[in-house]
Protein backbone atom coordinates (compact mmCIF):
# COMPACT_ATOMS: atom_id res chain seq x y z
CA UNK A 1 0.00 0.00 0.00
CA UNK A 2 1.43 3.44 -0.91
CA UNK A 3 2.67 5.41 2.09
CA UNK A 4 0.46 8.43 1.39
CA UNK A 5 -2.64 6.33 2.02
CA UNK A 6 -1.39 5.33 5.44
CA UNK A 7 -0.59 8.95 6.36
CA UNK A 8 -3.67 10.57 4.92
CA UNK A 9 -6.18 8.15 6.40
CA UNK A 10 -4.58 7.79 9.81
CA UNK A 11 -7.14 10.24 11.22
CA UNK A 12 -10.02 8.28 9.72
CA UNK A 13 -8.74 4.94 10.98
CA UNK A 14 -8.15 6.15 14.51
CA UNK A 15 -11.54 7.66 15.21
CA UNK A 16 -12.48 4.58 17.23
CA UNK A 17 -9.44 5.19 19.46
CA UNK A 18 -10.42 8.76 20.33
CA UNK A 19 -11.21 9.10 24.07
CA UNK A 20 -14.01 11.58 23.37
CA UNK A 21 -17.33 9.78 23.65
CA UNK A 22 -19.98 10.06 20.96
CA UNK A 23 -22.40 11.68 23.41
CA UNK A 24 -19.83 14.43 24.16
CA UNK A 25 -19.50 15.57 20.56
CA UNK A 26 -21.48 18.60 19.32
CA UNK A 27 -24.17 17.24 16.99
CA UNK A 28 -26.72 18.81 14.66
CA UNK A 29 -29.40 17.28 12.41
CA UNK A 30 -29.61 18.26 8.74
CA UNK A 31 -31.43 16.96 5.65
CA UNK A 32 -29.84 16.32 2.28
CA UNK A 33 -31.24 18.84 -0.24
CA UNK A 34 -32.57 17.10 -3.38
CA UNK A 35 -31.11 19.93 -5.50
CA UNK A 36 -27.64 18.74 -4.45
CA UNK A 37 -28.16 15.16 -5.61
CA UNK A 38 -27.75 13.14 -8.79
CA UNK A 39 -30.75 11.65 -10.66
CA UNK A 40 -30.05 8.36 -8.84
CA UNK A 41 -30.56 10.32 -5.55
CA UNK A 42 -26.86 10.16 -4.53
CA UNK A 43 -25.67 13.29 -2.75
CA UNK A 44 -22.81 14.90 -4.66
CA UNK A 45 -19.47 15.44 -2.95
CA UNK A 46 -19.79 19.23 -3.10
CA UNK A 47 -23.16 18.92 -1.37
CA UNK A 48 -21.62 16.82 1.41
CA UNK A 49 -18.85 19.38 1.96
CA UNK A 50 -21.35 22.26 2.07
CA UNK A 51 -23.50 20.39 4.59
CA UNK A 52 -20.44 20.06 6.82
CA UNK A 53 -19.83 23.80 6.51
CA UNK A 54 -23.43 24.52 7.52
CA UNK A 55 -23.11 22.15 10.48
CA UNK A 56 -20.03 23.96 11.81
CA UNK A 57 -21.89 27.28 11.72
CA UNK A 58 -25.06 25.83 13.24
CA UNK A 59 -23.05 24.31 16.07
CA UNK A 60 -21.09 27.56 16.56
CA UNK A 61 -17.90 25.50 16.81
CA UNK A 62 -15.08 27.53 18.43
CA UNK A 63 -12.16 27.65 16.00
CA UNK A 64 -9.83 30.48 16.96
CA UNK A 65 -6.60 30.89 14.96
CA UNK A 66 -3.64 32.91 16.22
CA UNK A 67 -4.42 36.58 17.02
CA UNK A 68 -4.74 38.52 13.76
CA UNK A 69 -4.55 35.32 11.70
CA UNK A 70 -7.14 33.40 9.70
CA UNK A 71 -7.79 29.70 9.19
CA UNK A 72 -7.03 28.35 5.72
CA UNK A 73 -7.93 24.82 4.61
CA UNK A 74 -4.90 22.90 3.39
CA UNK A 75 -6.28 19.39 2.94
CA UNK A 76 -9.55 17.50 3.26
CA UNK A 77 -9.81 13.72 3.33
CA UNK A 78 -13.33 12.44 2.70
CA UNK A 79 -14.36 8.81 3.11
CA UNK A 80 -17.81 7.69 2.00
CA UNK A 81 -18.82 4.40 3.56
CA UNK A 82 -22.32 4.71 2.15
CA UNK A 83 -23.64 7.60 0.07
CA UNK A 84 -26.25 9.94 1.58
CA UNK A 85 -29.38 10.23 -0.56
CA UNK A 86 -31.89 12.97 -1.34
CA UNK A 87 -33.99 14.11 1.65
CA UNK A 88 -32.17 11.75 4.05
CA UNK A 89 -31.89 13.06 7.61
CA UNK A 90 -28.27 13.22 8.74
CA UNK A 91 -26.77 13.48 12.20
CA UNK A 92 -23.58 15.53 11.92
CA UNK A 93 -21.03 15.47 14.75
CA UNK A 94 -17.66 17.18 14.98
CA UNK A 95 -14.60 17.44 17.19
CA UNK A 96 -10.98 18.61 17.09
CA UNK A 97 -8.89 15.51 16.43
CA UNK A 98 -5.32 16.89 16.49
CA UNK A 99 -3.39 20.16 16.71
CA UNK A 100 0.13 21.54 16.37
CA UNK A 101 1.93 24.87 16.57
CA UNK A 102 0.36 26.37 13.42
CA UNK A 103 -2.32 23.88 12.45
CA UNK A 104 -5.39 22.01 13.67
CA UNK A 105 -7.38 19.10 12.32
CA UNK A 106 -11.15 18.82 12.64
CA UNK A 107 -13.12 15.60 12.18
CA UNK A 108 -16.72 15.54 11.02
CA UNK A 109 -18.91 12.43 10.90
CA UNK A 110 -22.24 12.15 9.10
CA UNK A 111 -24.63 9.27 9.76
CA UNK A 112 -28.03 8.97 8.11
CA UNK A 113 -31.39 7.43 8.88
CA UNK A 114 -31.18 5.49 5.60
CA UNK A 115 -27.70 4.15 6.35
CA UNK A 116 -25.46 6.96 5.08
CA UNK A 117 -21.97 7.07 6.53
CA UNK A 118 -19.38 9.75 5.73
CA UNK A 119 -16.19 10.78 7.56
CA UNK A 120 -14.09 13.88 6.92
CA UNK A 121 -10.76 15.06 8.28
CA UNK A 122 -9.86 18.66 7.40
CA UNK A 123 -6.44 20.17 8.07
CA UNK A 124 -6.54 23.91 8.82
CA UNK A 125 -3.50 26.21 8.92
CA UNK A 126 -3.31 29.44 10.92
CA UNK A 127 -1.84 32.05 8.54
CA UNK A 128 -1.25 35.78 8.42
CA UNK A 129 -3.82 37.27 5.99
CA UNK A 130 -1.28 39.77 4.60
CA UNK A 131 1.90 37.73 4.18
CA UNK A 132 0.30 34.31 3.92
CA UNK A 133 2.91 32.90 6.31
CA UNK A 134 1.99 30.38 9.04
CA UNK A 135 1.26 31.99 12.40
CA UNK A 136 1.83 30.15 15.67
CA UNK A 137 -1.25 29.47 17.79
CA UNK A 138 -1.29 31.17 21.18
CA UNK A 139 -2.61 27.96 22.72
CA UNK A 140 -3.53 24.50 21.48
CA UNK A 141 -7.25 23.67 21.32
CA UNK A 142 -8.59 20.71 23.25
CA UNK A 143 -8.31 17.64 21.03
CA UNK A 144 -9.47 14.05 21.20
CA UNK A 145 -5.94 12.62 21.11
CA UNK A 146 -3.15 15.09 22.09
CA UNK A 147 -0.46 12.50 21.25
CA UNK A 148 -1.36 12.11 17.60
CA UNK A 149 0.49 14.01 14.90
CA UNK A 150 -0.73 14.60 11.36
CA UNK A 151 1.55 15.09 8.31
CA UNK A 152 0.93 18.66 7.17
CA UNK A 153 2.95 18.69 3.94
CA UNK A 154 1.12 18.68 0.60
CA UNK A 155 1.91 15.73 -1.65
CA UNK A 156 -0.20 16.09 -4.80
CA UNK A 157 2.04 16.24 -7.86
CA UNK A 158 1.74 18.47 -10.93
CA UNK A 159 -0.40 17.17 -13.82
CA UNK A 160 1.61 14.48 -15.66
CA UNK A 161 2.21 14.26 -19.39
CA UNK A 162 -0.89 13.16 -21.21
CA UNK A 163 -3.28 15.13 -18.98
CA UNK A 164 -6.10 16.97 -20.73
CA UNK A 165 -7.37 20.47 -19.92
CA UNK A 166 -10.32 22.67 -20.74
CA UNK A 167 -11.63 26.01 -19.53
CA UNK A 168 -13.81 25.88 -16.43
CA UNK A 169 -14.96 29.45 -15.63
CA UNK A 170 -15.49 30.52 -12.05
CA UNK A 171 -18.97 31.94 -11.47
CA UNK A 172 -19.88 34.76 -9.11
CA UNK A 173 -21.92 32.22 -7.16
CA UNK A 174 -18.67 30.32 -6.47
CA UNK A 175 -17.27 33.26 -4.47
CA UNK A 176 -17.87 33.21 -0.72
CA UNK A 177 -17.83 35.81 2.05
CA UNK A 178 -14.01 35.89 2.04
CA UNK A 179 -14.13 37.05 -1.61
CA UNK A 180 -12.40 33.95 -2.94
CA UNK A 181 -13.55 30.68 -4.49
CA UNK A 182 -15.23 28.54 -1.85
CA UNK A 183 -13.45 25.34 -0.84
CA UNK A 184 -16.35 23.21 -2.08
CA UNK A 185 -15.93 24.31 -5.71
CA UNK A 186 -13.13 21.82 -6.46
CA UNK A 187 -15.55 19.06 -5.48
CA UNK A 188 -18.08 20.52 -7.96
CA UNK A 189 -15.39 20.46 -10.64
CA UNK A 190 -14.59 16.83 -9.79
CA UNK A 191 -18.25 15.86 -10.08
CA UNK A 192 -18.37 17.67 -13.44
CA UNK A 193 -15.84 15.27 -15.02
CA UNK A 194 -15.78 11.62 -15.97
CA UNK A 195 -13.45 11.13 -13.00
CA UNK A 196 -16.25 11.92 -10.60
CA UNK A 197 -18.82 9.91 -12.51
CA UNK A 198 -16.66 6.77 -12.43
CA UNK A 199 -15.38 7.17 -8.87
CA UNK A 200 -18.87 7.72 -7.48
CA UNK A 201 -20.20 4.40 -8.77
CA UNK A 202 -20.72 1.89 -5.98
CA UNK A 203 -21.40 1.99 -2.27
CA UNK A 204 -18.68 4.50 -1.36
CA UNK A 205 -15.19 5.80 -1.99
CA UNK A 206 -12.20 7.72 -0.62
CA UNK A 207 -11.16 11.15 -1.86
CA UNK A 208 -8.53 13.72 -0.96
CA UNK A 209 -8.21 17.37 -1.91
CA UNK A 210 -5.26 19.72 -1.35
CA UNK A 211 -5.34 23.52 -1.47
CA UNK A 212 -2.08 25.26 -2.45
CA UNK A 213 -3.37 28.77 -3.14
CA UNK A 214 -6.55 30.79 -3.46
CA UNK A 215 -8.67 31.20 -6.57
CA UNK A 216 -10.73 34.25 -7.47
CA UNK A 217 -13.46 35.17 -9.92
CA UNK A 218 -12.29 34.75 -13.50
CA UNK A 219 -11.26 32.12 -16.05
CA UNK A 220 -9.88 28.85 -14.72
CA UNK A 221 -8.60 25.66 -16.28
CA UNK A 222 -9.66 22.17 -15.23
CA UNK A 223 -7.08 19.45 -15.88
CA UNK A 224 -7.75 15.70 -15.81
CA UNK A 225 -5.11 13.02 -15.28
CA UNK A 226 -4.68 10.34 -17.98
CA UNK A 227 -5.88 7.58 -15.64
CA UNK A 228 -8.94 9.55 -14.54
CA UNK A 229 -8.14 9.50 -10.82
CA UNK A 230 -7.26 13.18 -10.28
CA UNK A 231 -8.25 16.67 -11.40
CA UNK A 232 -6.58 20.06 -10.90
CA UNK A 233 -8.12 23.54 -10.98
CA UNK A 234 -6.16 26.73 -11.52
CA UNK A 235 -5.56 29.85 -13.56
CA UNK A 236 -4.45 29.04 -17.14
CA UNK A 237 -0.67 29.14 -17.46
CA UNK A 238 -0.09 29.01 -13.70
CA UNK A 239 0.51 26.24 -11.20
CA UNK A 240 -2.79 24.56 -10.22
CA UNK A 241 -4.25 26.03 -7.05
CA UNK A 242 -6.19 22.99 -5.87
CA UNK A 243 -6.57 19.33 -6.75
CA UNK A 244 -8.68 16.33 -5.80
CA UNK A 245 -8.00 12.66 -6.32
CA UNK A 246 -9.64 9.34 -5.70
CA UNK A 247 -7.55 7.14 -3.42
UniProtKB/TrEMBL annotation:
InterPro entries reported in the protein's UniProt record: Acyl-ACP_thioesterase_NHD, HotDog_dom_sf
Pfam families to which the protein is assigned, alphabetical: Acyl-ACP_TE
SUPFAM superfamilies named in the record: Thioesterase/thiol ester dehydrase-isomerase
Superkingdom of source: Bacteria
Molecular-function GO terms, alphabetical: thiolester hydrolase activity
GO annotation terms (biological process): fatty acid biosynthetic process
Domain Acyl-ACP thioesterase N-terminal hotdog: 69-129
Full protein name: Acyl-ACP thioesterase N-terminal hotdog domain-containing protein
Species the sequence originates in: Candidatus Neomicrothrix parvicella RN1
Amino acid sequence: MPSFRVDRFDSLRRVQDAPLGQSDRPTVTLRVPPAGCEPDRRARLDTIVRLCDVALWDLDVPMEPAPGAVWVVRRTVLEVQRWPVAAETLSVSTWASAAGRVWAERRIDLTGQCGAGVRLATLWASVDPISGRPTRLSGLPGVADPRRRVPIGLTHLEPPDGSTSHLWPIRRSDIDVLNHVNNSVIWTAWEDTECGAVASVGAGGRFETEYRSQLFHGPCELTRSPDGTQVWLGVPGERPAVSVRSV
